[in-house]
Amino acid sequence: MTLVDGQQIRLGDLPIKDPLCWERSAATPPFSFSYGDRHSDEFLATWKFREERDTSQPGRTSRVRTYTDPQTGLVVRSTVVEYADFPTVEWTLSFKNFGDHDTPILAGILPLDTRFERGEEVRSPLVVLQFYRGDWTGAQNVWRSWMLEHNVPRRNGKTLQPFMFVCNGGYYPGLMTAAAAELQFLRRYFVIRDKPGAAVFTYRRKK
After folding, report:
1. How far is CA 136 from CA 87, 91, 149, 156, in A?
2. Alpha-carbon distance 154 to 147, whole Å?
3. Span 59-88, pLDDT tens digits
4. Where exactly are the structural domains of the chain?
5. Cα 5 vs. chain centroid, distance in angstroms?
6. What's the chain's Rg over C-alpha atoms?
7. Rounded CA gap, 72 and 75, in Å?
8. Alpha-carbon 87 to chain mean position
9. According to the 3-state scheme, what is the secondary structure of the chain?
10. How far is it, in rounded angstroms, from Cα 67 to Cα 148?
11. Is the pLDDT of residue 203 over 50?
12. Residues 6+ apart with CB under 8 A from 141
């Protein structure tokens, strides 16, 4: 976008102004919410705190930090995952009511604004913070490499290979096919499919 003074800037580089947030200490947890009519920065330090660390998975360190409200039984769980081979940190925030009654209203966890009934549980979307140096194309490569290494489903420890399907419903606009033509295509395909750079094209004009 172009500013009034003619300076051009990307939308992603504009400062974020959120009326629910203010200047916060570096020691404050990297999340916030409103509970009843109070902001979490006002009371979270007084809740029961517990942290568990897991290094059982190679290249990953998981830290689960829980905050428990001694009065209402609400438990806030922050799960942080650090990657040793990528400049990447991800975290998930979840809430669960372990109390005997409904909780006060939770707000400011955009786009969440609700009350939890007894036993209900919900979590925030996964948030990923990734660092990079250089231009944005390098950042994309870091992101793709991280996704392939740690997030793509695997079978027997190996990434899934691309699937290829040959399918024809019998009719496309401007193109008619028949069983004989499809069999001809398949026979030709299996003959040359293993030849490097081979391609098979077949069609029949609509009469």
Report:
1. 15, 23, 20, 34
2. 12
3. 999 999 999 999 999 999 999 999 999 888
4. 11-131, 164-207
5. 37
6. 27
7. 9
8. 16
9. CECCCCCECCHHHCCCCCCCCCCCCCCCCCCCCEECCEEHHHHHHHCEEEEEEECCCCCEEEEEEEEECCCCCEEEEEEEEEECCCCEEEEEEEEEECCCCCCCCEEEECCEEECCCCCCEEECCCEEEECCCCCHHHHHHHHHHHHHHHCCCEECCEECCCCCCCCCCCEECCEECCHHHHHHHHHHHHHHCCCCCCCCCCCCECC
10. 33
11. no
12. none
pLDDT in tens, 88-104: 888 889 999 999 999 99
Q: Which of 175, 171, 148 is CA-nearest to residue 161?
A: 148
The DSSP bridge pattern shows strands 106-109 and 34-35 to be antiparallel
Distance CA 6, CA 115 (A): 47
- Rounded distance, CA 33 to CA 79, Å? 16
- Residues with Cβ within 8 Å of 167's Cβ and at least 6 positions away in sequence, in order, are none
Q: What is the pLDDT of residues 169-192, one digit of tens each?
A: 554 555 556 677 777 777 877 776
